[in-house]
Amino acid sequence: MTAPDPDETPVAFSGSRLGWQDLPRHVRARIAQQAGAEVIAETGATSGFSPGFASVLELGDGREVFVKAVSAEQNPHSPDLARREVAVAAALPDDVPAPRLLWSHDDGTWVLLGFQAVHGRSPVLPWRADDLVRVLSALDRLAGTAPREPHALRPVTETLADVMSGWASLAAEPEAYRRGVADAGGELGAWTLAHLDELVDAEARWAQAAAGDALVHGDLRADNVILDSTTCWLVDWPHAALGAPWLDVALMLPSVAMQGGGEPNAIFRSQRVSEGVGDDRLRPVLAGLAGYFAHGALQPAPTGIPNLRRFQGAQAVQTLRWLRSLG
């Protein structure tokens, strides 16, 4: 992996969003039908990696709705993620600061989601201390939350089982490939190669460390947060699962460090959810996360998301630095 330029943080945006007029006519008609009024204006979302359509729509009766519309043409995984978000919405308790799902429609090709429109801003980047405090406070409250029963949420040990094995995948590559990857990563790459067996061993224990019954968002970064005058909204929930109550903070902090928010271990240890979480439990999760990011960064760009791999590479660097600081 190549260490990113510290003065050039990757942007969390797919760059391939559809506008209202890009949607097929029958999709636009279905959205208007589901919304209950004609669409007279749109304000497109300018952050997040998901390709497809994502906009706040102004309706003819004065209401607003945030709509996602995706098909496999934009990305083969997008429809299933949208379907997953429908299932997750039913499991979110009322006190979770997530926009409410108002309606959904699935014709087998296009999946349409209509959410409560919330207005605010993303955290200022580089991270400001006051924004970070608000987000961490929201995660502190989320850590004590259980999903609404009955629900279809799976344990995080199942939802992430296929991706938390990046170091094992790298170790299985030919030695020349491993050395090429390490050389591209400079000093950190050399450290990674020298400790590859330890990383493989650590990531193999991530599931035991991450297990729990708390509601976990599973994909929190600045682009999945909206701040208004009173509420820190947590958006985009398709990866929600059940896990340890400290997981969301730990999984988010590499992106915070990448975006100028401070030293992740110091932030983690300042949070109530870290109490009783020893380094021996944190280390396997960070190893699995670093391997996921590093292995992902080496893959071809997914359809419709050209800059995802660079973003993953930058997070791999920060996660490895945090992991290495634990000794």
From TrEMBL:
InterPro entries membership: Aminoglycoside_PTrfase, Kinase-like_dom_sf
Name of the protein described by the UniProt record: Aminoglycoside phosphotransferase domain-containing protein
Pfam families: APH
Organism of this sequence: Cellulomonas aerilata
SUPFAM superfamilies in the cross-refs: Protein kinase-like (PK-like) (SSF56112)
Residue span, Aminoglycoside phosphotransferase domain: 60-268
